[in-house]
Amino acid sequence: MRVLGVDPGTLNMGYGVIEERSGSQIAMLTCGVLSAPQKMPVEERLCTLYDGLLKIVTEFKPEEMAVEEPFVANNARSALAIGRAQAVAILAGAQARLPVARYMPTQVKQLVTSYGRSSKDQVQQVVKLQLGVMGLPEASDAADALAVAICHLNQRHLNQILNRGY
Amino acid sequence: MRVLGVDPGTLNMGYGVIEERSGSQIAMLTCGVLSAPQKMPVEERLCTLYDGLLKIVTEFKPEEMAVEEPFVANNARSALAIGRAQAVAILAGAQARLPVARYMPTQVKQLVTSYGRSSKDQVQQVVKLQLGVMGLPEASDAADALAVAICHLNQRHLNQILNRGY
To answer: Is residue B68 annotated as part of the catalytic site, yes or no?
Structure first.
């Protein structure tokens, strides 16, 4: 099972593709950050991010997609920008016929570290351990994207267990 | 010059295509509302609206696009939804290689009625008069989309006059 995780932003969109192998071992296939300079007009920015995601989908052929559903505080301006970035991510996945799941930050923490109030650092430690990579990219958007992908795999496992009727 | 105007929303997306003919007469080619039921998952909703807009672009071949940039008050939840809808509209236009212009509600009022504080009703009256249609569709999202398209044509005229150096 290959999962594309995305941490959406209109300037920086983190992405990471992971693959579950036998014995629930997880490997990282790629990760990084798509960037769109702030001085670009919005329409070009959105297209750049959309095209970038489609390229990753074409190259790495994930079967499912998981998008972080950002926590929206009371800042309507930033909520508007986050909504745009999220739509770009969701559309790229859905147009490529991938099932798209969305997770709140607390769900990501809960499902990755089994604790909903973990620090960003703790989440990244678990991500590194699970993927067996020592140094994750500096860009924490990429690490966040890997975390939401792992979160999705763990949610799938939980669903499978629940469906089996335990 | 054919312009596609869009009034973005995640449940209802208003659209209208107008054409400027000789003597700055303007004709309406189509208008309506794309709807995506609230019970649909977000990804399906966004795809439905995106595909709907692409269909209109393919059928009516507008040369430019104008999107209403919504007024975002302090409601972060609704700003997130508006951001998503706006991204869908902008992406559909930009992927079809249309130049995409965005207008604030006050700009639409100013450029359609020459007064930035017109009521919604006054804007719709002018839209009806300019398009020579007596009854506009009940759905005011469609009428808003036509207004932003007319606003864009008027802005283009202004730019042409300014570029001529008057």
So the answer is: yes
d(CA A155, CA A22): 17
How far does B105 lie from chain A, in Å, by closest CA? 16
Look up the domain containing A61 and give its range: 2-163
Q: Is the pTM of this model over 0.80?
A: yes
Alpha-carbon gap, residue A130 to A150, rounded angstroms: 8
- Residue A18: partners with Cβ closer than 8 Å, 6 or more residues away: A2, A3, A5, A26, A27, A28, A29, A131, A146, A149, A150, A153
Q: Is A47 helix (H, G, I), strand (E, B) or coil?
A: helix
Sheet holding A12-21, edge to edge: A25-35, A12-21, A2-7, A64-68, A100-103
**Residue in A43, A44, A50, A100 to test binding to B, most B beta-carbons within 10 Å:** A43
Residues in CB range of B120: below 8 A, 6 or more apart: B140
> Taking the CB of residue A156, how many other CB atoms lie within 10 A of it?
16
Contact B77 A77 (CB under 8 A): no
Farthest CA pair distance, chain B: 54
Residue A49 pLDDT greater than 90, yes or no: yes
What whole-number percentage of chain B has pLDDT above 90?
Answer: 55
> Which token pair is B33?
């509302």
First to last CA, chain A: 23
Q: Each residue of B46-80: pLDDT tens digit?
A: 999 999 999 999 999 999 999 998 777 678 888 88
The verdict on whether B19 is a catalytic residue reads no
DSSP string, B118-151: --HHHHHHHHHHHHT-SS--S-HHHHHHHHHHHH
Domain count, chain B: 1
